Amino acid sequence: MTAAHAHLSQQAKAAVPTHVAIIMDGNGRWAKKRKLPRVQGHRKGVDSVRAVLRAAGEVGVKYLTLYAFSVENWNRPKDEVDTLMKYLARYLDSEIPELNKNNVKLKVIGQVYRLPEFVQEQIARTKTALAKNTGLTLILALSYGGRTEIVEACREIATKVKSSKIIPDEINEQMLAQHLYTRNIPDPDLLIRTSGEMRVSNYLLWQISYAEFVVTPTLWPDFRKPQFFATLEEYTRRHRRFGNI
After folding, report:
1. Strand pairing partners for 64?
2. Pairing between strand 105-109 and 63-70?
3. What is the maximum alpha-carbon separation in the chain?
4. How many CB atoms lie within 10 A of CB 87?
5. 187 is catalytic
6. Among residues 47, 73, 100, 187, which one is catalytic?
7. Bridge partners of residue 107, in order along the sequence
8. Residues 25, 27, 102, 189: which is the catalytic one?
């Protein structure tokens, strides 16, 4: 990728992706490099969320999906998980004025029922506070796993087959997509992963089938508007063929 700039070229402005998904990786390494507790990396990462949200809204991105907490993350040390949950609730509360100012709506995908009750309650309050907004939709993937999502969709469809609401011959890609957490949301055009790791980490496995991938070595707490714009410039240089010539 070329050097990051805080403005977009005309070509990039004309080809802004509708839906951007981000794997926000590197908070722990950012903190470790500075000999700080891991949670300080998560705290600093919130500043990047704010900066990227603003930048995405500014250029006309319609959906921004952030991988905030995976089903695998429940296996992290309890102290770290508890702190992350407190940060999450605090973020969802304190950011309401900022999100309202930027006309942002909120959606949450994942096994939300596994989140602590105080987090679930704050999610509901924040959604209500932002409900009338008409700009970018921020989608937080919380307690999320791509395989879990597909399994749950299959289970739901199987239940409908069992009760004769649908017949097996009716099951197709469109039907399965309508049973995912992301039903009625267009698939991501661009998947960004920070920190240089080359894997998808069980993220939106169905939805990213034809997404363009941009992996940046930048750790998430250092990923701001210039770095985001650099990924959009890279996206502009891609030729999306969707399996065609």
Report:
1. 20, 138
2. unpaired
3. 59
4. 15
5. no
6. 73
7. 139
8. 25
Token pair in block for residue 158: 């199987």
Q: Is 25 annotated as catalytic?
A: yes
Number of Cα atoms under 13 Å in the Cβ half of residue 229? 18
Cα–Cα dist 141/43, whole Å = 18
Beta strands in the chain (DSSP E): 19-23, 63-70, 105-109, 137-144, 190-193, 212-215
All structural domains of the chain, each given as residue ranges with its CATH number in brackets, are 10-236 (3.40.1180.10)
CA separation (Å) from 83 to 25, 92, 131, 188, 204? 17, 14, 27, 30, 25
Phi and psi at 149, nearest 5°, equal: -60, -45
Average pLDDT of adjacent 10-residue blocks, the chain of 245 residues: 70 96 95 92 93 97 97 94 94 96 98 98 98 98 98 98 96 97 98 97 97 98 97 91 65
